[in-house]
TrEMBL record:
GO terms for biological process: regulation of DNA-templated transcription. Residues 129-227 form the OmpR/PhoB-type domain. This is DNA-binding response regulator. The modification 4-aspartylphosphate is found at D54. Residues 129-227 bind DNA. It comes from the Bacteria. Keywords: DNA-binding, Phosphoprotein, Transcription, Transcription regulation, Two-component regulatory system. One of its GO terms (molecular function) is phosphorelay response regulator activity. It holds the Pfam family Response_reg. Residues 5-119 form the Response regulatory domain.
Length: 229
């Protein structure tokens, strides 16, 4: 069985050791770096399945490391560690391609759960698959279309990108803020828009009643793609 290898980049000795120990006990192989300089060397020289990056680091910061990872290994999942209340860091990380974030102070159980969830869905990242199956039909990533039997339903760019992001993160609640940052490429702190609701409604209508059930609205939280709907 493949043992996942996690790269942990954190300058706080206690946090770094705590994360490394918890990951090792949970069956992961662990690489750790104490600053951005050390991490840059590991990013190029080592193999790893997921990176856990603190934002504030001596040397290269977490965003610099994220950019470098995305340049070299576009599909490697990345989780960012951000300070409580640092909304700008969350938005910036998501825009740069982070898969998820954990807010300090955090519990080790939360970090482990998020890592497990990201690794579970990473083989289904849009760049790695051509389609996502639906109860009736499928989403064709290559053609950017919804296929229902013999019919190919053309989706708008926003409809397709939104469906793709939700499907790639199946089982995880996707907030409106994340959608604005990752799909709309807008800063959620600066805009208020109902276009997400409108796009979701149009997408559900095109998908048909049975398929539309995979997209569930969680009031006050966001949306979730449920494969078993």
């Amino acid at each position: 069985m493949h043992r996942y290898r996690i790269l942990v980049v954190e300058d706080d000795h206690a946090i770094r050791n705590g994360l490394s120990d918890a990951l090792a006990v949970s069956g992961y192989d662990v690489l750790s770096a104490r600053d951005g300089y050390e991490a840059l060397e590991m990013i190029h020289a080592e193999e790893y399945d997921l990176a856990l990056l603190d934002v504030v680091l001596p040397g290269a910061n977490g965003f610099d490391l994220l950019r470098r990872i995305r340049e070299d290994r576009a599909t490697v999942p990345v989780l960012m560690l951000t300070a409580k209340g640092a909304e700008a860091d969350k938005v910036k990380g998501l825009k740069l391609g982070a898969d998820d974030y954990v807010v300090k102070p955090f519990s080790l159980l939360e970090v482990l759960a998020r890592i497990e969830a990201v690794l579970r869905r990473s083989p289904e990242r849009p760049s790695a698959v051509n389609r996502v199956m639906l109860p009736e039909g499928y989403l064709d990533f290559a053609a950017r279309a919804l296929v229902l039997g013999e019919e190919r339903v053309v989706l708008t760019t926003k409809e397709f990108d939104l469906a793709r992001h939700l499907a790639a993160n199946a089982g995880r609640i996707i907030t409106r803020e994340e959608i604005l940052a990752r799909v709309w490429k807008m800063d959620p702190r600066l805009v208020e828009t109902r276009s997400i609701d409108t796009t979701i409604a149009r997408l559900r209508e095109k998908m048909g009643k049975r398929n539309a059930a995979v997209i569930r609205t969680l009031r006050g939280q966001g949306y979730i793609w449920e494969d078993d709907a």
